[in-house]
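Show me a record, fold above all:
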Amino acid sequence: MPKAAPPRTTGLPPTRLLTSLAPLLHEWLPRQRWFAGKGRPVTDFVLLTATELLPGLLHLLVRTEHSPAPAQATAAPADCYQLLIGVRDQLPPRLAPALIGHASQGPLAGRAVYDALHDPQSAALLLERLRNPGTVGPLSFEHDPKVTIPPGLAPRLLGVEQSNTSLVYGDTFILKVFRRVQPGVNPDLELPWALTRQGCDRVPAPAAWFHTSEPEAATLGVLQPFLRGADDGWTLALASLAQGRPFTDESYELGRATAEVHLALADAFPPLTLGPAQTELIAAAMTERLDATAQAVPSLGPYVPRLRAAFEAVAALTSAGTAQRVHGDLHLGQALRPADGSWSVIDFEGEPARPLAERRRPQPPVRDVAGMLRSFDYAARTARPANPGWAEECRAAYCAGYAARSGSDPRESPELLRAYETDKAVYEVLYEARHRPDWLPVPMAAIRRLAGA
Protein backbone atom coordinates (compact mmCIF):
# COMPACT_ATOMS: atom_id res chain seq x y z
CA MET A 1 0.00 0.00 0.00
CA PRO A 2 1.39 3.46 -0.80
CA LYS A 3 2.52 5.58 2.12
CA ALA A 4 -0.24 7.82 3.43
CA ALA A 5 0.24 11.56 3.57
CA PRO A 6 0.44 12.98 7.11
CA PRO A 7 -3.14 13.46 8.39
CA ARG A 8 -4.31 16.75 9.80
CA THR A 9 -7.33 18.30 11.42
CA THR A 10 -9.50 19.63 8.63
CA GLY A 11 -9.29 23.36 8.18
CA LEU A 12 -12.99 23.65 7.35
CA PRO A 13 -15.04 25.38 10.04
CA PRO A 14 -17.45 22.85 11.62
CA THR A 15 -20.50 24.89 10.69
CA ARG A 16 -19.47 24.94 7.02
CA LEU A 17 -18.80 21.20 6.95
CA LEU A 18 -22.15 20.52 8.60
CA THR A 19 -23.86 22.61 5.93
CA SER A 20 -22.91 19.85 3.50
CA LEU A 21 -23.27 16.85 5.80
CA ALA A 22 -26.30 17.54 8.02
CA PRO A 23 -29.01 17.09 5.34
CA LEU A 24 -27.42 13.79 4.28
CA LEU A 25 -26.99 12.49 7.83
CA HIS A 26 -30.62 13.29 8.67
CA GLU A 27 -31.67 10.71 6.08
CA TRP A 28 -28.85 8.18 6.37
CA LEU A 29 -28.02 7.92 10.06
CA PRO A 30 -31.42 6.75 11.41
CA ARG A 31 -31.41 3.89 8.87
CA GLN A 32 -28.18 2.39 10.21
CA ARG A 33 -28.35 -0.79 12.25
CA TRP A 34 -26.10 0.71 14.93
CA PHE A 35 -28.08 3.96 15.33
CA ALA A 36 -29.30 4.05 18.94
CA GLY A 37 -31.92 6.77 18.55
CA LYS A 38 -34.70 4.72 16.99
CA GLY A 39 -38.02 6.44 17.66
CA ARG A 40 -36.28 9.68 18.71
CA PRO A 41 -36.34 12.20 15.84
CA VAL A 42 -33.00 13.95 15.24
CA THR A 43 -33.32 17.71 15.63
CA ASP A 44 -29.72 18.80 15.17
CA PHE A 45 -26.13 17.72 14.64
CA VAL A 46 -23.05 19.07 16.40
CA LEU A 47 -19.64 18.34 14.88
CA LEU A 48 -17.35 17.61 17.85
CA THR A 49 -14.15 16.76 15.97
CA ALA A 50 -13.15 16.51 12.31
CA THR A 51 -9.75 15.01 11.43
CA GLU A 52 -8.54 14.65 7.86
CA LEU A 53 -6.69 11.34 7.55
CA LEU A 54 -6.17 11.81 3.80
CA PRO A 55 -7.54 14.29 1.28
CA GLY A 56 -11.14 13.16 0.90
CA LEU A 57 -11.10 10.97 4.03
CA LEU A 58 -12.48 12.46 7.25
CA HIS A 59 -12.76 11.04 10.73
CA LEU A 60 -15.73 12.65 12.51
CA LEU A 61 -17.30 12.58 15.93
CA VAL A 62 -20.86 13.85 15.56
CA ARG A 63 -23.36 14.47 18.32
CA THR A 64 -27.03 14.02 17.53
CA GLU A 65 -29.68 15.91 19.44
CA HIS A 66 -33.21 14.56 19.64
CA SER A 67 -36.75 15.77 20.15
CA PRO A 68 -38.89 13.85 22.65
CA ALA A 69 -40.28 10.50 21.55
CA PRO A 70 -44.10 10.37 21.41
CA ALA A 71 -44.36 8.94 24.94
CA GLN A 72 -41.83 11.34 26.46
CA ALA A 73 -42.28 14.83 27.82
CA THR A 74 -38.62 15.88 27.68
CA ALA A 75 -35.99 15.75 24.98
CA ALA A 76 -34.03 12.51 24.71
CA PRO A 77 -30.34 12.54 25.64
CA ALA A 78 -27.81 13.31 22.92
CA ASP A 79 -25.65 10.57 21.40
CA CYS A 80 -22.15 10.76 19.92
CA TYR A 81 -21.29 8.72 16.80
CA GLN A 82 -17.99 7.90 15.14
CA LEU A 83 -18.03 8.24 11.35
CA LEU A 84 -15.33 7.66 8.76
CA ILE A 85 -16.48 9.74 5.80
CA GLY A 86 -15.17 9.53 2.25
CA VAL A 87 -15.68 12.27 -0.32
CA ARG A 88 -15.31 11.76 -4.09
CA ASP A 89 -16.37 13.50 -7.25
CA GLN A 90 -17.81 10.22 -8.51
CA LEU A 91 -18.43 7.04 -6.57
CA PRO A 92 -17.32 3.79 -8.28
CA PRO A 93 -20.03 1.12 -8.60
CA ARG A 94 -18.31 -1.12 -6.01
CA LEU A 95 -18.91 1.55 -3.36
CA ALA A 96 -22.54 2.23 -4.27
CA PRO A 97 -23.88 0.43 -1.14
CA ALA A 98 -21.79 2.80 1.00
CA LEU A 99 -23.31 5.99 -0.42
CA ILE A 100 -24.57 8.43 2.18
CA GLY A 101 -25.69 10.99 -0.40
CA HIS A 102 -24.66 13.76 -2.75
CA ALA A 103 -24.01 17.10 -1.06
CA SER A 104 -26.06 19.91 -2.55
CA GLN A 105 -24.66 22.80 -0.52
CA GLY A 106 -21.66 23.91 1.49
CA PRO A 107 -17.99 23.11 0.80
CA LEU A 108 -18.75 19.55 -0.40
CA ALA A 109 -21.47 20.62 -2.86
CA GLY A 110 -21.67 18.39 -5.92
CA ARG A 111 -19.59 15.61 -4.41
CA ALA A 112 -20.50 12.08 -3.30
CA VAL A 113 -20.27 11.38 0.43
CA TYR A 114 -19.96 7.75 1.58
CA ASP A 115 -19.20 5.49 4.55
CA ALA A 116 -15.47 4.96 4.09
CA LEU A 117 -15.35 1.80 6.21
CA HIS A 118 -16.75 0.08 3.09
CA ASP A 119 -13.73 1.26 1.10
CA PRO A 120 -10.79 -1.19 1.18
CA GLN A 121 -8.30 1.64 0.67
CA SER A 122 -9.62 3.56 3.69
CA ALA A 123 -9.83 0.38 5.78
CA ALA A 124 -6.20 -0.42 4.90
CA LEU A 125 -5.15 3.05 6.00
CA LEU A 126 -6.80 2.48 9.38
CA LEU A 127 -4.71 -0.66 9.89
CA GLU A 128 -1.56 1.23 8.90
CA ARG A 129 -2.27 3.80 11.58
CA LEU A 130 -2.50 0.97 14.14
CA ARG A 131 0.71 -0.62 12.87
CA ASN A 132 2.54 2.69 13.26
CA PRO A 133 1.43 4.17 16.59
CA GLY A 134 1.13 7.92 16.87
CA THR A 135 -1.16 10.87 17.32
CA VAL A 136 -3.26 12.58 14.68
CA GLY A 137 -4.99 15.64 16.04
CA PRO A 138 -7.15 14.33 18.90
CA LEU A 139 -6.74 10.71 17.71
CA SER A 140 -4.14 8.37 19.21
CA PHE A 141 -3.20 4.97 17.76
CA GLU A 142 -1.46 2.36 19.95
CA HIS A 143 -0.52 -1.31 19.79
CA ASP A 144 0.93 -4.04 21.96
CA PRO A 145 4.67 -4.04 21.10
CA LYS A 146 4.78 -7.82 21.66
CA VAL A 147 2.34 -8.36 18.76
CA THR A 148 3.47 -8.22 15.13
CA ILE A 149 0.88 -6.84 12.73
CA PRO A 150 1.98 -7.67 9.15
CA PRO A 151 1.56 -5.02 6.45
CA GLY A 152 -0.74 -5.40 3.49
CA LEU A 153 -3.48 -7.51 5.11
CA ALA A 154 -6.52 -7.33 2.83
CA PRO A 155 -9.57 -5.85 4.61
CA ARG A 156 -13.15 -7.01 4.35
CA LEU A 157 -16.22 -5.68 6.08
CA LEU A 158 -17.93 -8.19 8.35
CA GLY A 159 -21.51 -8.20 7.15
CA VAL A 160 -23.34 -9.28 10.31
CA GLU A 161 -25.98 -7.41 12.27
CA GLN A 162 -24.38 -5.63 15.21
CA SER A 163 -24.27 -2.34 17.06
CA ASN A 164 -20.77 -1.52 15.76
CA THR A 165 -18.78 -2.09 12.57
CA SER A 166 -16.10 -4.78 12.27
CA LEU A 167 -13.35 -5.21 9.68
CA VAL A 168 -11.41 -8.46 9.18
CA TYR A 169 -7.84 -8.13 7.92
CA GLY A 170 -6.47 -11.13 6.06
CA ASP A 171 -8.39 -13.53 8.32
CA THR A 172 -5.69 -12.67 10.90
CA PHE A 173 -7.09 -9.72 12.86
CA ILE A 174 -10.50 -8.19 13.43
CA LEU A 175 -11.01 -4.47 14.15
CA LYS A 176 -14.14 -3.39 15.95
CA VAL A 177 -14.97 0.27 15.31
CA PHE A 178 -17.29 1.60 17.99
CA ARG A 179 -20.07 3.59 16.38
CA ARG A 180 -21.73 5.04 19.46
CA VAL A 181 -18.98 6.65 21.52
CA GLN A 182 -19.17 7.42 25.22
CA PRO A 183 -16.50 8.98 27.46
CA GLY A 184 -14.21 6.54 29.26
CA VAL A 185 -12.37 3.30 28.56
CA ASN A 186 -14.58 0.86 26.67
CA PRO A 187 -14.87 -2.51 28.47
CA ASP A 188 -14.11 -4.25 25.17
CA LEU A 189 -10.55 -2.98 25.57
CA GLU A 190 -10.33 -2.84 29.35
CA LEU A 191 -11.54 -6.37 30.20
CA PRO A 192 -9.73 -8.45 27.53
CA TRP A 193 -6.53 -6.58 28.39
CA ALA A 194 -7.00 -7.37 32.09
CA LEU A 195 -7.83 -11.02 31.34
CA THR A 196 -4.72 -11.33 29.19
CA ARG A 197 -2.59 -10.11 32.10
CA GLN A 198 -4.26 -12.78 34.26
CA GLY A 199 -3.23 -15.47 31.78
CA CYS A 200 -6.83 -16.28 30.78
CA ASP A 201 -6.75 -17.81 27.30
CA ARG A 202 -10.53 -17.76 26.83
CA VAL A 203 -10.39 -14.24 25.36
CA PRO A 204 -8.50 -12.94 22.28
CA ALA A 205 -5.94 -10.41 23.55
CA PRO A 206 -6.06 -6.81 22.23
CA ALA A 207 -3.34 -6.24 19.63
CA ALA A 208 -3.96 -2.54 18.96
CA TRP A 209 -6.50 0.18 19.69
CA PHE A 210 -7.23 3.84 19.06
CA HIS A 211 -8.91 6.54 21.10
CA THR A 212 -9.65 10.25 21.17
CA SER A 213 -8.77 12.93 23.68
CA GLU A 214 -11.51 15.33 22.53
CA PRO A 215 -14.12 16.37 23.45
CA GLU A 216 -13.49 13.80 26.21
CA ALA A 217 -11.22 10.77 26.36
CA ALA A 218 -12.96 7.75 24.79
CA THR A 219 -12.08 4.43 23.15
CA LEU A 220 -12.82 4.34 19.40
CA GLY A 221 -11.74 0.88 18.26
CA VAL A 222 -9.95 -2.36 19.21
CA LEU A 223 -7.95 -4.79 17.04
CA GLN A 224 -7.82 -8.44 18.17
CA PRO A 225 -6.79 -11.77 16.65
CA PHE A 226 -9.44 -13.20 14.34
CA LEU A 227 -10.38 -16.75 15.29
CA ARG A 228 -10.44 -18.18 11.79
CA GLY A 229 -12.63 -21.24 11.31
CA ALA A 230 -14.47 -20.78 14.59
CA ASP A 231 -18.27 -21.01 14.72
CA ASP A 232 -20.28 -18.82 17.04
CA GLY A 233 -22.55 -20.43 19.60
CA TRP A 234 -25.71 -19.10 17.99
CA THR A 235 -24.92 -20.79 14.66
CA LEU A 236 -24.02 -24.05 16.41
CA ALA A 237 -27.17 -23.98 18.52
CA LEU A 238 -29.42 -23.43 15.50
CA ALA A 239 -27.69 -26.31 13.70
CA SER A 240 -28.31 -28.52 16.73
CA LEU A 241 -32.00 -27.62 16.71
CA ALA A 242 -32.34 -28.13 12.96
CA GLN A 243 -30.71 -31.56 13.19
CA GLY A 244 -32.72 -32.59 16.24
CA ARG A 245 -29.67 -33.38 18.35
CA PRO A 246 -28.83 -32.26 21.89
CA PHE A 247 -26.54 -29.36 22.67
CA THR A 248 -25.85 -30.32 26.27
CA ASP A 249 -22.15 -31.19 25.95
CA GLU A 250 -21.44 -27.87 24.27
CA SER A 251 -23.54 -26.05 26.88
CA TYR A 252 -21.65 -27.71 29.74
CA GLU A 253 -18.28 -26.67 28.31
CA LEU A 254 -19.58 -23.16 27.68
CA GLY A 255 -20.58 -22.98 31.35
CA ARG A 256 -17.03 -23.94 32.32
CA ALA A 257 -15.60 -21.27 30.01
CA THR A 258 -17.87 -18.62 31.52
CA ALA A 259 -16.77 -19.58 35.02
CA GLU A 260 -13.09 -19.34 34.04
CA VAL A 261 -13.64 -15.82 32.71
CA HIS A 262 -15.45 -14.82 35.90
CA LEU A 263 -12.71 -16.25 38.13
CA ALA A 264 -10.03 -14.35 36.18
CA LEU A 265 -12.04 -11.12 36.33
CA ALA A 266 -12.44 -11.53 40.08
CA ASP A 267 -8.64 -11.74 40.35
CA ALA A 268 -8.16 -8.68 38.14
CA PHE A 269 -10.81 -6.48 39.79
CA PRO A 270 -11.57 -6.89 43.51
CA PRO A 271 -15.18 -8.07 44.09
CA LEU A 272 -17.59 -6.15 46.31
CA THR A 273 -19.90 -7.60 48.95
CA LEU A 274 -23.59 -7.02 48.24
CA GLY A 275 -25.53 -6.01 51.33
CA PRO A 276 -29.16 -4.89 51.68
CA ALA A 277 -28.45 -1.37 50.42
CA GLN A 278 -26.86 -2.68 47.23
CA THR A 279 -29.58 -5.23 46.52
CA GLU A 280 -32.20 -2.51 46.96
CA LEU A 281 -30.40 -0.37 44.39
CA ILE A 282 -30.21 -3.31 41.95
CA ALA A 283 -33.95 -3.98 42.36
CA ALA A 284 -34.82 -0.29 42.01
CA ALA A 285 -32.89 0.00 38.74
CA MET A 286 -34.62 -3.11 37.36
CA THR A 287 -38.04 -1.77 38.38
CA GLU A 288 -37.31 1.57 36.75
CA ARG A 289 -36.36 -0.14 33.47
CA LEU A 290 -39.50 -2.27 33.64
CA ASP A 291 -41.77 0.74 34.11
CA ALA A 292 -40.06 2.72 31.33
CA THR A 293 -40.29 -0.23 28.92
CA ALA A 294 -43.96 -0.77 29.71
CA GLN A 295 -44.62 2.83 28.68
CA ALA A 296 -42.78 2.32 25.39
CA VAL A 297 -44.20 -1.18 24.66
CA PRO A 298 -47.85 -1.33 25.82
CA SER A 299 -48.09 -5.12 25.35
CA LEU A 300 -45.81 -5.49 28.37
CA GLY A 301 -48.24 -3.63 30.64
CA PRO A 302 -50.46 -6.54 31.82
CA TYR A 303 -47.41 -8.43 33.13
CA VAL A 304 -45.79 -5.57 35.05
CA PRO A 305 -47.20 -6.35 38.55
CA ARG A 306 -46.05 -9.97 38.46
CA LEU A 307 -42.68 -9.12 36.92
CA ARG A 308 -42.10 -6.48 39.57
CA ALA A 309 -42.44 -9.22 42.20
CA ALA A 310 -39.17 -10.75 40.97
CA PHE A 311 -37.37 -7.49 41.69
CA GLU A 312 -39.06 -7.08 45.06
CA ALA A 313 -37.73 -10.50 46.04
CA VAL A 314 -34.18 -9.25 45.36
CA ALA A 315 -34.78 -6.07 47.35
CA ALA A 316 -35.80 -8.24 50.32
CA LEU A 317 -32.51 -10.19 50.34
CA THR A 318 -30.23 -9.50 53.28
CA SER A 319 -27.22 -10.84 51.36
CA ALA A 320 -26.68 -11.50 47.67
CA GLY A 321 -23.06 -12.63 47.60
CA THR A 322 -20.59 -10.49 45.67
CA ALA A 323 -20.48 -8.20 42.66
CA GLN A 324 -17.56 -8.05 40.25
CA ARG A 325 -16.72 -7.02 36.70
CA VAL A 326 -18.61 -9.23 34.26
CA HIS A 327 -19.11 -9.57 30.52
CA GLY A 328 -22.40 -7.67 30.69
CA ASP A 329 -24.05 -8.91 27.46
CA LEU A 330 -23.27 -12.61 27.34
CA HIS A 331 -25.18 -14.72 24.82
CA LEU A 332 -24.50 -17.47 22.29
CA GLY A 333 -23.36 -15.01 19.64
CA GLN A 334 -20.57 -13.82 21.97
CA ALA A 335 -19.00 -17.29 22.23
CA LEU A 336 -16.78 -18.80 19.53
CA ARG A 337 -15.87 -22.47 19.23
CA PRO A 338 -13.00 -23.52 16.94
CA ALA A 339 -12.44 -27.05 15.72
CA ASP A 340 -10.72 -28.12 18.95
CA GLY A 341 -13.97 -27.48 20.87
CA SER A 342 -12.57 -24.96 23.36
CA TRP A 343 -14.91 -21.99 23.78
CA SER A 344 -13.66 -18.40 23.57
CA VAL A 345 -15.63 -15.39 24.78
CA ILE A 346 -15.67 -12.11 22.81
CA ASP A 347 -17.34 -8.69 22.74
CA PHE A 348 -16.98 -7.39 26.30
CA GLU A 349 -18.58 -4.07 25.44
CA GLY A 350 -21.75 -4.82 27.42
CA GLU A 351 -25.23 -3.78 26.33
CA PRO A 352 -24.50 -0.77 24.08
CA ALA A 353 -27.82 0.92 24.89
CA ARG A 354 -26.83 1.30 28.53
CA PRO A 355 -24.50 4.07 29.78
CA LEU A 356 -20.81 3.22 29.84
CA ALA A 357 -20.53 3.95 33.57
CA GLU A 358 -23.26 1.39 34.23
CA ARG A 359 -21.58 -1.20 32.00
CA ARG A 360 -18.31 -0.81 33.91
CA ARG A 361 -20.01 -1.18 37.29
CA PRO A 362 -19.48 -4.44 39.26
CA GLN A 363 -22.44 -6.81 38.92
CA PRO A 364 -23.33 -10.22 40.34
CA PRO A 365 -21.84 -12.92 38.08
CA VAL A 366 -25.32 -14.41 37.77
CA ARG A 367 -26.13 -11.55 35.40
CA ASP A 368 -23.96 -13.15 32.69
CA VAL A 369 -25.46 -16.55 33.46
CA ALA A 370 -28.97 -15.16 33.02
CA GLY A 371 -27.97 -13.66 29.67
CA MET A 372 -26.81 -17.03 28.38
CA LEU A 373 -29.94 -18.77 29.68
CA ARG A 374 -32.03 -16.23 27.78
CA SER A 375 -29.97 -16.97 24.67
CA PHE A 376 -30.74 -20.69 24.85
CA ASP A 377 -34.42 -19.75 25.04
CA TYR A 378 -34.05 -17.41 22.04
CA ALA A 379 -32.55 -20.19 19.95
CA ALA A 380 -35.23 -22.68 20.96
CA ARG A 381 -38.00 -20.21 20.10
CA THR A 382 -36.65 -19.69 16.58
CA ALA A 383 -36.96 -23.42 15.82
CA ARG A 384 -40.02 -24.60 13.91
CA PRO A 385 -41.76 -25.85 15.90
CA ALA A 386 -40.39 -24.12 19.00
CA ASN A 387 -38.47 -26.48 21.26
CA PRO A 388 -38.49 -25.21 24.87
CA GLY A 389 -37.40 -28.65 26.12
CA TRP A 390 -34.10 -28.25 24.24
CA ALA A 391 -33.55 -24.92 25.99
CA GLU A 392 -34.22 -26.43 29.43
CA GLU A 393 -31.64 -29.18 28.83
CA CYS A 394 -29.08 -26.60 27.72
CA ARG A 395 -29.80 -24.38 30.69
CA ALA A 396 -29.25 -27.25 33.14
CA ALA A 397 -26.04 -28.38 31.44
CA TYR A 398 -24.66 -24.83 31.29
CA CYS A 399 -25.29 -24.22 35.00
CA ALA A 400 -23.74 -27.61 35.85
CA GLY A 401 -20.61 -26.76 33.87
CA TYR A 402 -20.39 -23.37 35.53
CA ALA A 403 -20.70 -24.95 38.97
CA ALA A 404 -18.08 -27.61 38.18
CA ARG A 405 -15.48 -24.94 37.39
CA SER A 406 -16.43 -22.19 39.84
CA GLY A 407 -17.71 -24.21 42.78
CA SER A 408 -20.89 -22.10 42.83
CA ASP A 409 -24.11 -23.20 41.13
CA PRO A 410 -26.12 -20.20 39.81
CA ARG A 411 -29.33 -22.11 40.55
CA GLU A 412 -28.56 -21.78 44.26
CA SER A 413 -29.40 -18.05 43.94
CA PRO A 414 -32.94 -18.38 42.55
CA GLU A 415 -34.09 -14.85 43.43
CA LEU A 416 -31.14 -13.20 41.69
CA LEU A 417 -31.26 -15.56 38.72
CA ARG A 418 -34.98 -14.99 38.15
CA ALA A 419 -34.61 -11.21 38.55
CA TYR A 420 -31.74 -10.98 36.06
CA GLU A 421 -33.55 -13.22 33.58
CA THR A 422 -36.59 -10.99 33.93
CA ASP A 423 -34.53 -7.82 33.54
CA LYS A 424 -32.88 -9.25 30.42
CA ALA A 425 -36.23 -10.23 28.92
CA VAL A 426 -37.53 -6.70 29.55
CA TYR A 427 -34.44 -5.30 27.79
CA GLU A 428 -35.08 -7.67 24.87
CA VAL A 429 -38.70 -6.53 24.59
CA LEU A 430 -37.63 -2.91 24.18
CA TYR A 431 -34.83 -3.81 21.78
CA GLU A 432 -37.02 -5.92 19.52
CA ALA A 433 -39.86 -3.39 19.56
CA ARG A 434 -37.43 -0.73 18.34
CA HIS A 435 -35.25 -2.70 15.95
CA ARG A 436 -36.91 -6.01 14.94
CA PRO A 437 -40.65 -5.97 15.63
CA ASP A 438 -41.06 -9.38 13.99
CA TRP A 439 -38.94 -10.86 16.79
CA LEU A 440 -40.99 -9.36 19.61
CA PRO A 441 -42.94 -12.62 20.25
CA VAL A 442 -39.69 -14.32 21.34
CA PRO A 443 -39.04 -12.23 24.47
CA MET A 444 -42.79 -11.88 25.09
CA ALA A 445 -42.99 -15.67 25.44
CA ALA A 446 -40.33 -15.42 28.17
CA ILE A 447 -42.22 -12.54 29.79
CA ARG A 448 -45.32 -14.71 30.07
CA ARG A 449 -43.29 -17.58 31.53
CA LEU A 450 -41.45 -15.38 34.03
CA ALA A 451 -44.62 -13.56 35.05
CA GLY A 452 -46.16 -16.90 35.95
CA ALA A 453 -43.12 -18.19 37.83
Q: What stands out?
A: Confidence is low (pLDDT under 50) at residues 1-8. The first strand starts at residue 8 and ends at 9. The first helix runs from residue 14 to 28.
